[in-house]
């Protein structure tokens, strides 16, 4: 039995401990900056300025955050079912194929029909790529962590092949599809110009950001306001009690993974339909892994995920500004911070609990083995 | 140049980092610590090896520093998994990211080449041994061209397989290590420290990943570039599963996967349209095979029973 | 003669649980000393302290008269103490030889140790009837042989005193008899054996001395020759304040549940429920008495639809549960189930009380149409149940894990009773529950009976069974030993619980 001195108050568990862990992660990141010989506070200020100091910065920050909301929600839904879906990267990549297939194949359709179809196709491809590991886990007992890792690599090769042989126009050197013209409507800038005659700062922000908000709400609704969500959370929180309650684990595992994959797939809407307007190699660029950090930091709750996604959006946008302002600090500093956040909020999640327990229960002289 | 000889020699070269990482994973996972951070440890080692070798002009110093860096990362993973009883998968993911980020950030700061390290002179690299006098002899020459054109690290990798197999099977340490990966309570009740055993396993994994990383940046190539391990750590993990957590089958799996990588490289070198099988399918084959195996369609893979589960003294 | 082991004033707490209270014991050299008590009486904790797995908060241990400090299992092993754990400490993919050698290799290479162990095993096999193939894979051996490997491990390490924790729980009667012969041979050759069990029959059959533990204390130590099953049973259970439960006579109606020749086997193929038949009618409480671990839990799981029987039938309201299937369908048919292990199955600690209060019933239409789960209705339902059943604090938003045991149990009982079942199956309804809550829980169960519902009650508390039941079945080793009326004496039931079948009462 894990004997703790006593139950810590809820706000400590949900609020204080994550906050301390985050601070430690940021302090460690600051140390890295210090090692490079720069001032961490200055660096942080440049990052905040770079993303919150201008409309364009906000645009970029929210664009990054949109991706991270999708991948973060994907990780969170699986987490709630007790599953660790590391495959967001591959699921999002496959979803790009769905988005591009519909976006290019049906581009004669008017956009109000084309767009929803393309979104559904993205979700379907992402879901499919998570469904297989889900089935393998539920029916064959293959460990979901390993299969989703493998599926990331399989997707990397497979999508590369599909783009090269299926989408690349004859004679084009770059391995990418032709332009998807039907979905320009998603871009905030285009809409402003087309319908309002207003010119706004150039940024990749597009209407997917609303889709992200809807997805966050939908995940909240699913998990806390539906019977299915109840079953998902029950299975993840206490499998024995779930069995007692007649909840079928295999069914829930498959459903949760499918939903998780569909959410990761939505990233294609932001990136392929909203920004790149074409399917290109390696477009996911690690956002699937950022989702893990976002979900851990957001405590797998949609509101927490929205906030964490914005923080990471800030880090990504601020990070690139920082690398302009201070070439000594590479953009990849963000990846370091990301790694430290996952380390301290995930692997060292309980590191500060004993100390806090001692603080809250100074006289509890009980055995804490 | 005979294409097949070159292909087989390349197979051996490509499988070296896989073998080292796979045996690293073998040690770690047989002790019950799941290690998806092989990739990150190799990457940081590749970076440190190339950096230290560039600065000190010695491949051996590069190797030494690479091993230190890799072990440091391994100890972070060990501390998270053993003392903090944290989620080992999460810890592994964190280590992969940390390594990927740090390598580029530090490299950029130290060498100002956007994360690249400077090209190494010959003395900064582990160069292949050459036996030109053998290459012209019939039959023997063919073998020599395949097997005797590698650096010392490659031979180390091939030596580490029987050594590990022997140590796991025949030594006290190996016996206890295998036991702790199956049933840590049995080890604890026998009066042996579970944590000490697991730390030792994790450190061995760190050392081997360190050598693997050094091989990649100072033997296979002559500098570090970002993400240069390109998933080898995960492919090694796949090989480990494929080999059912055993040393000799792991060698076989790594050679197979190395062979596929070598074919992939050749296919990329030649005109893509000339080949029947697209290179992407060759590249994904190791992962597909592993998934098929995991699903229990060919044989059965049985991981060490206690792997991934933090040991809590409990009843 | 100095005792082999002396424990003096051992005291141990885990959090709020006082596992051992000032325990003192002396174990005579060359004897078999039984320690008996119910689950949770503190036997295993005490032995874990002796074996160095835990440190006592206070007290002293003496081995052969000398005070010793045992800080780890290796200290214990060095002092000649060996332990055969209830859950074997074996590495299943290893051979017998490798298991025996583990931790006693004697050098950096295991080759020499294996040679030595092989010779030693031959000798031990000859001396103590401990034959086992040294090259067999342990995981492939039957349980009885695995246990032999555990004993061999201890002897190979030079154990003078052997502790066996519930050794017969996993054995067939034949294997158990063989084990006892081995233990007797061991003591004949000067070894000392400590046997921990909750089975009275074993104590009588094999031990020289017996100590009874109850709630962390040693309440008595007897020479086995000078005591009997009845006295031990009383000491074990204790003379509790007899619970007074007000209830009128039962008016049983038609049969709701019929169990016919039911057998359930565990993974290793041992029949945990063995050819059990009985029925429960409307308007009666059928109690199943028995020392825990005699198949009651497994029986409940089969009836609830959680596990599938190996053979036999369970017929619920005229329908075979083989066809009805899973717990969800059983609930839909009118079954309610209060599980034995409330912490691990009855509720979900991280959920708030309102959500735990719908566990298993969450798909009811009254909680939201179709796929929806109406939060307001969930909370309202929990609130009314909590008020009616006096769950404290009556806060549906408080995390389930933060309620006391009694209040958690009331929450579960409320959930199941309010589902308006035709049959309520209840396991250990008052385990770890305070007196006030016990009374209330009993009252509600009887009320349910008086409304004409059927109740199947499983409890290890004999008093509870006697005061609640209209008919009493006693289970022993997976079988129903007999059926008695509510007026059966404690003695009668105690004998049945000990597995002593009587022809006439």
In words, what does this structure look like?
In chain A, 56% of the residues are buried. The longest helix of chain A has 30 residues, at 111-140. Chain A has helices at 10-36, 40-52, 55-80, 88-105, 111-140, 144-167, 188-196, 208-225, 227-237, 239-244, 249-265, 267-276, 287-297, 302-325, 333-347, 353-360. Chain A is built from 16 helices and no strands. Chain B has 13 helices and no strands. Chain C has 505 residues and is α/β, with parallel strands linked by helices. Chain C folds into 3 domains: 5-237, 3-Layer(aba) Sandwich (Rossmann fold); 241-334 and 421-505, P-loop containing nucleotide triphosphate hydrolases (Rossmann fold), CATH 3.40.50; 346-419, no CATH class. A 6-stranded mixed sheet of chain C has the order 6-7-8-3-9-10, with helices on both faces. Chain C has a 6-stranded mixed sheet with strand order 16-17-18-13-19-20, sandwiched between helices. Chain C has a 4-stranded antiparallel sheet with strand order 2-1-4-5, with helices on one face. In chain C, α14 (375-388) crosses α15 (405-417) and α15 (405-417) runs parallel beside α16. Classes of the chains: A mainly alpha (369), B mainly alpha (315), C alpha/beta (505). Chains in contact: A-B, A-C, B-C. Chains A and B meet through α1, α6, α13 and α15 of A and α3, α4, α11 and α13 of B.
Descriptive tags:
heterotrimer, A: 369 residues, mainly alpha, ABC transporter involved in vitamin B12 uptake, BtuC, 16 helices, disordered C terminus, C: 505 residues, alpha/beta, Rossmann fold, 3 domains, 6-stranded mixed sheet, 18 helices, 20 strands
Helix amount of chain C, in percent?
25-40%
Largest sheet of chain C: 6 strands, mixed
**In CATH terms, what is the architecture of chain A?**
Orthogonal Bundle
The strand line-up of the biggest sheet of chain C is: 6-7-8-3-9-10
Uncertain stretches of 5 or more adjacent residues of chain A: 1-5, 363-369
| Termini Cα gap of chain C | 45 Å
Question: Percent of residues of chain A in beta strands?
Answer: under 5%
Please give the radius of gyration of chain C in angstroms: 25 Å
Q: In total, how many domains does the architecture of chain C comprise? A: 3
Mean pLDDT of chain C: 88
Low-confidence stretches of chain C at least 5 residues in length (pLDDT < 50)? none
Biggest β-sheet of chain A, characterized? none
Helix count from the secondary structure assignment of chain A: 16
Oligomer: heterotrimer
Shape assignment of chain A = globular
Number of helices of chain C: 18
Largest interface: A-B, 53 and 53 residues
Helix vs. strand class of chain A: mainly alpha
Tell me the total number of β-strands of chain C. Answer: 20
Q: Give the C-alpha Rg of chain A.
A: 22 Å
């Amino acid at each position: 039995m894990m004997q703790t001195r006593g139950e810590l108050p809820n706000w400590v568990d949900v609020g204080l401990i994550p906050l301390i862990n985050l601070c430690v992660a940021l302090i460690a990141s600051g140390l890295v900056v210090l090692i490079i010989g720069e001032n961490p506070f200055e660096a942080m200020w440049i990052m905040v300025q770079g993303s919150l100091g201008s409309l364009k910065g906000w645009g970029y920050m929210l664009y990054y955050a949109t991706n991270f909301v999708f991948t973060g929600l994907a990780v969170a839904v699986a987490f709630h079912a007790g599953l660790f879906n590391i495959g967001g990267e591959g699921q999002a990549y496959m979803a790009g194929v769905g988005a591009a297939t519909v976006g290019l194949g049906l581009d004669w359709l008017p956009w109000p029909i084309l767009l929803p179809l393309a979104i559904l196709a993205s979700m379907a491809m992402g879901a499919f790529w998570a469904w297989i590991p889900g089935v393998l886990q539920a029916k064959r007992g293959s460990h979901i962590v390993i299969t989703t890792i493998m599926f990331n690599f399989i997707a990397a090769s497979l999508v590369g092949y599909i783009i090269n042989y299926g989408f690349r126009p004859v004679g084009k050197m770059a391995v990418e599809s032709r332009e998807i013209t039907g979905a320009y409507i998603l871009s905030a800038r285009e809409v402003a110009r087309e319908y309002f005659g207003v010119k706004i700062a150039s940024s990749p922000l597009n209407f997917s950001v609303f889709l992200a908000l809807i997805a966050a709400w939908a995940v909240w609704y699913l998990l806390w306001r539906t019977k299915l969500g109840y079953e998902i959370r029950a299975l993840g929180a206490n499998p024995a009690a779930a069995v007692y309650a007649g909840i079928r684990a295999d069914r829930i595992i498959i459903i949760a993974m499918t939903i998780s994959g569909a959410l990761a797939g939505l990233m294609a809407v932001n990136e392929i339909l909203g920004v790149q307007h074409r399917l290109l190699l390696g477009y996911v660029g690690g956002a699937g892994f950022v989702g893990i950090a976002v979900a851990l930091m957001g405590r797998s709750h949609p509101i927490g995920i929205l906030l964490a996604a914005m923080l990471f959006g800030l880090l990504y946008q601020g990070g690139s500004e920082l690398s302009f302002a201070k070439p000594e600090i590479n953009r990849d500093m963000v990846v370091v911070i990301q790694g430290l956040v996952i380390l301290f909020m995930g692997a060292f999640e309980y590191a500060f609990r004993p100390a806090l327990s001692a603080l809250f229960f100074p006289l509890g002289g009980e055995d804490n083995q | 140049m005979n294409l097949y000889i070159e292909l087989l020699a390349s197979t051996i070269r490509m499988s070296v980092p896989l073998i080292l990482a796979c045996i690293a994973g073998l040690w770690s996972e047989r002790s019950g610590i799941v290690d998806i951070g092989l990739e990150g440890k190799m990457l940081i080692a590749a970076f440190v090896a190339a950096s230290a070798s560039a600065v000190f002009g010695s491949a051996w110093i590069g190797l030494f520093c690479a091993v230190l860096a890799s072990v440091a990362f391994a100890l972070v993973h060990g501390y998270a998994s053993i003392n903090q009883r944290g989620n080992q998968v999460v810890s592994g993911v964190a280590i992969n990211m940390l390594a990927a980020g740090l390598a580029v950030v530090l490299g950029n700061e130290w060498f100002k080449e956007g994360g690249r390290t400077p090209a190494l002179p010959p003395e900064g690299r582990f160069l292949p041994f050459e036996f030109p006098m053998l290459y012209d002899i019939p039959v023997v020459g063919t073998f020599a061209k395949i097997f005797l054109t590698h650096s010392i690290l490659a031979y180390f990798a091939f030596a580490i397989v029987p050594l590990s197999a022997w140590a796991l099977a025949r030594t006290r340490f190996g016996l206890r290590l295998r036991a702790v990966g199956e049933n840590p309570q049995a080890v604890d009740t026998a009066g042996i420290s579970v944590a000490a055993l697991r730390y030792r396993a994790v450190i061995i994994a760190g050392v081997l990943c360190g050598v693997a990383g050094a091989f990649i940046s100072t033997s296979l190539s002559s500098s570090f570039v970002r993400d240069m391990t390109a998933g080898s750590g995960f492919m090694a993990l796949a090989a480990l599963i494929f080999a059912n957590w055993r040393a000799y089958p792991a060698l076989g799996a790594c050679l197979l996967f190395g062979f596929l990588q070598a074919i992939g490289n050749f296919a990329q070198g030649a005109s893509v349209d000339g080949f029947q099988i697209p290179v992407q399918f060759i590249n994904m084959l190791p992962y597909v095979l592993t998934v098929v195996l995991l699903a229990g369609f060919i044989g059965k893979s049985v991981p060490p029973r206690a792997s991934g589960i933090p040991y809590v003294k409990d009843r | 003669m100095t005792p082999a082991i002396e424990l003096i004033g051992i005291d141990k707490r885990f959090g709020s649980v006082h596992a051992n209270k000032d325990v003192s014991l002396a174990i005579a050299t060359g004897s078999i000393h039984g320690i008996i008590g119910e689950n949770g009486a503190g036997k295993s904790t005490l032995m874990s302290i002796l074996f160095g797995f835990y440190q006592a908060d206070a007290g002293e241990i003496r081995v052969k008269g000398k005070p010793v400090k045992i800080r780890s299992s290796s200290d214990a092993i060095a002092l000649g103490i060996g332990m055969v754990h209830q859950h074997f400490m074996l590495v299943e993919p290893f051979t017998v030889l490798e298991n025996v050698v583990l931790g006693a290799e004697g050098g950096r290479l295991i080759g020499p140790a294996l040679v030595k162990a092989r010779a030693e095993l031959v000798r031990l096999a000859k001396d103590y009837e401990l034959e086992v193939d040294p090259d067999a894979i342990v995981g492939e051996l039957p349980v009885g042989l695995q246990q032999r490997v555990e004993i061999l491990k201890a002897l190979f390490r030079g154990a003078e005193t052997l502790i066996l924790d519930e050794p017969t729980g996993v054995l067939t009667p034949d294997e158990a008899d063989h084990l006892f012969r081995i233990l007797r041979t061991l003591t004949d050759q000067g070894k000392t054996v400590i046997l921990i069990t909750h089975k009275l029959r074993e104590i009588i059959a094999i031990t020289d001395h017996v100590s009874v533990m109850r709630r962390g204390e040693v309440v008595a130590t007897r020479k086995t020759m000078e005591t009997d099953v009845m006295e031990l049973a009383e000491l074990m259970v204790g003379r509790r304040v007899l619970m007074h439960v007000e209830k009128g006579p039962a008016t049983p109606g038609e049969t709701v549940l019929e169990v016919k020749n039911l057998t359930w086997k565990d993974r290793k193929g041992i029949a945990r429920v063995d050819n059990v038949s009985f029925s429960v009618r409307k308007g009666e409480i059928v109690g199943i008495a028995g020392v825990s671990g005699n198949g009651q839990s497994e029986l409940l799981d089969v009836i609830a639809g959680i596990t599938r029987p190996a053979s036999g039938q369970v017929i619920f309201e005229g329908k075979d549960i083989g066809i009805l299937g899973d717990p969800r369908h059983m609930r839909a048919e009118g079954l309610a189930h209060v599980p034995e292990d409330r912490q691990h199955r009855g509720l979900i600690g991280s959920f708030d009380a309102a959500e735990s209060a719908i566990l298993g019933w969450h798909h009811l239409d009254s909680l939201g149409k179709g796929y929806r789960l109406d939060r307001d209705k969930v909370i309202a339902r929990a609130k009314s149940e909590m008020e009616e059943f006096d769950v404290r604090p009556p806060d549906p938003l408080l995390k389930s894990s933060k309620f006391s045991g009694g209040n958690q149990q009331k929450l579960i009982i409320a959930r199941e009773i309010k589902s308006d079942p035709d049959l309520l199956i209840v396991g250990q309804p008052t385990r770890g529950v305070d007196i006030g809550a016990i009374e209330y829980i009993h009252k509600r169960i009887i009320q349910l009976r008086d409304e004409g519902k059927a109740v199947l009650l499983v409890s290890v508390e004999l008093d509870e069974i006697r005061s609640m039941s209209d008919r009493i079945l006693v289970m022993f080793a997976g079988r129903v030993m007999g059926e008695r009326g509510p007026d059966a004496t404690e003695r009668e039931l105690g004998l049945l619980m000990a597995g002593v079948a009587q022809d006439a009462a």
